[in-house]
Specification:
magnesium, 20% strand, Nucleotidyltransferase, domain 5, 2 domains, 402 residues, alpha/beta, six-stranded mixed beta sheet, kinase
């Protein structure tokens, strides 16, 4: 069974075509700057040169048409016809409380996705556009929606509710939803495999650290708390997002700096985080270089990030009554050698210690704690695409049997 995984952003589209008989990647790539005349298309195949083009791509439907054409191309393709694509799995950011699992996409599901777009106006519309484009081009191929929020639907009410009037939740759906769920679920499962145990027997803290970051407490295979909330803005200090702040700061800034709501929203989402503190960059590699050269604000931004992650880890140890493993994943988690070291510095009271030599890796799967540590530390590269493909296969398997 071949599954096409599609991840649409507002001006981007990432994809992978996987052969699920052995979970191998047949092709993968991405489109950047969709909607522009100089959009960038990159296509990769195992053991072959990368294809890169710059051309006008006005919308996601055009991007998918280009994608499907190259998949069957005599020179660059990996399948003989589109009939070899058995199902399509779509990453959808927000499923609200409507979806606690991945689902086969139907007209009723599409209606619900549009309802969810009201609380995720930046994220869900591009996801919906990708689904509609695939439905138009491949009307007979089953499509599956896989939600970033679904894994966190196991959080108890005391964890996900805000202390606002209850009607804000019951009438408007204002609550903590959490994100990066597909990634947290994958690395937790992989962590359990590496430890030779079942997820139901473990307490895992998963740290998905990138330009957008979140930490999740996973007890018995279930998410019981996570740092992001109603939107991906809350929680940790991030690349350009402020994370948790006193909500009274918003009207204060609007008053003192004569800002509109939209301007404050942009400030918190695009101009804050380590970028706002450092005044240098949201790229942690650039910050580390600047800090080494003596830039105190760059060092402060890094210190704040490390402190906030460490503080959340400590809180989640408390809510789970202990921890068996801490996992680092995503761009910074997988590649930030110094960041992992700084975050773990001070966690020795848990019964764990980072092995500096083992920690000297980027993008590799490895236990990096000192041998014999009571609490294990792992670096596990995330693989959201394989999780989407697995769910797609699980849901559509009976539909596509030949």
């Amino acid at each position: 069974m071949n599954v096409l995984v599609v991840n649409c952003g507002s001006s981007s589209l990432k994809y992978q075509l996987l052969d699920m008989t052995n979970e191998s990647v047949l092709a993968k790539g991405q489109f950047e700057k969709i909607g522009a005349k100089d959009a960038i298309f990159t296509h990769k195949r195992p053991n072959a040169d990368k294809v890169e083009r710059v051309e006008s791509i006005l919308n996601h439907k055009e991007a998918l048409t280009i994608l499907l054409n190259i998949l069957v191309d005599d020179q660059y393709g990996v399948i003989k016809s589109m009939d070899e694509i058995d199902a399509v799995g779509h990453r959808v950011v927000h499923g609200a409380e409507k979806f606690a699992d991945s689902v086969l996409i139907t007209p009723a599901v599409m209606e619900a996705l549009n309802e969810c777009a009201k609380i995720a106006p930046l994220h869900n519309p591009p996801n919906i556009q990708g689904i509609e484009a695939c439905q138009a081009i491949m009307p007979k191929v089953p499509q599956v929606a896989v939600f970033d929020t679904a894994f966190h639907q196991t959080m108890p009410k005391e964890a996900f509710l805000y202390a606002l009037p209850y009607e804000a939740y019951s009438e408007l759906g204002v609550r903590r939803y959490g994100f990066h769920g597909t990634s947290h679920k994958y690395v937790a499962q992989r962590c359990a495999e590496l430890m030779g145990k079942h997820m139901s027997d473990l307490r895992i803290i998963s740290c998905h650290l990138g330009n957008g970051s979140s930490v999740t407490a996973i007890k018995g295979g279930r998410s019981i708390d996570t740092s992001m909330g109603f939107t991906p803005l809350s929680g940790l200090v991030m690349g350009t997002r402020c994370g948790d702040i006193d909500p009274a700061i918003v009207p204060y800034l609007m008053n003192k700096w004569d800002m509109t709501y939209s301007e404050v929203d942009s400030l918190m989402n695009k101009k804050s985080g380590v970028l706002g503190i450092s005044g240098v960059s949201n790229d942690f590699r650039v910050l580390e270089d600047a800090a080494k050269e003596g830039n105190k604000r760059a060092q402060l931004a890094l210190d704040m990030f490390h402190y906030k992650v460490r503080r959340v880890i400590g809180a989640y140890v408390a809510v789970m009554g202990g921890v068996d493993a801490i996992v680092f994943t995503a761009g910074i988690g997988e590649n930030g050698i110094g960041n992992r070291d700084a975050i773990c510095n001070g966690l020795e009271y848990l019964g764990t210690r980072l092995d500096k030599e083992l920690n000297n890796i980027r993008g590799e799967e490895r236990e990096v704690s000192v041998e014999g540590s009571k609490v294990k530390i792992f670096v596990i590269p995330t693989n959201e695409e394989i999780m989407i493909a697995r769910d797609t296969q699980r849901i559509t398997g009976d539909l596509v049997k030949k």
